[in-house]
Amino acid sequence: MADQQDEAFTNIAQTLQLLQQMLAAQAAAPKTPATEDKLPPFVRHFKKPESEGGTPYVIGDTKTYNATTWHFCGCPKHRSNLKWHTHPTADCKIRKAWLEEKAAAPAVANAGDVQSEIPIQEGSAASNATSGVTALLANALSVIGDDDALHDVISEALSALHQT
């Protein structure tokens, strides 16, 4: 039993290290200045400035920048959190795929639900460590957002912790 717990904690520690490396790699990803210079300053804006009322943009809103018409798209799956692109929103393949995923996907459990499903025997030293690791993983699960790869890694770690 103790060997299984040690193995589970080792696996969880490795998973957390992998998670930290993946998050660090995402944060350190180089941005190409040539691409950044070509983009309009409003490309990541999802809401109008306070001087214009501060209301969120809606699908179908357009702006012109350097004689190019930019269309607003509220899809959260666009790379680099871009909200505006040069093709009409109706032609956006990423948005279409996201809407299909959203319609077909079953409800996902909340990280708080995952944490409460794991039984822990009260009073043991392992229960304190297990609850701390569970809380860490549940917190990481709520922070990652839509990244499926990280979601799978954390879910596997939680299920491994649950099996011990």
Structure characterization notes:
The chain has 164 residues and is mainly alpha-helical. The protein folds into 2 domains: 2-22 and 109-163, no CATH class; 41-104, no CATH class. The chain has 6 helices and 3 strands, in the order ααβββαααα. It has helices at 2-27, 33-38, 93-104, 111-117, 125-143, 148-163, and strands spanning 62-65, 68-72, 84-85. A 3-stranded antiparallel sheet has the order 1-2-3, with no helix packed on it. A hairpin with a 2-residue loop joins strand 1 and strand 2. The chain is elongated, with a radius of gyration of 21 Å. The mean pLDDT is 74.
Mean pLDDT level? 74
Query: Sheet bearing the most strands, described?
Result: 3 strands, antiparallel
From the structure provided, what is the oligomeric state, counting identical versus distinct chains? single chain
Structural class: mainly alpha
The number of helical elements comes to 6
Low-pLDDT parts are: none
Q: Evaluate the radius of gyration.
A: 21 Å
Give the strand order, joined by hyphens, for the main sheet.
Answer: 1-2-3
**What string, H for helix and E for strand, traces the elements in order?**
HHEEEHHHH
Shape: elongated
Query: How many E-type strands?
Result: 3
For the record, the count of structural domains works out to 2
Strand content: 5-15%
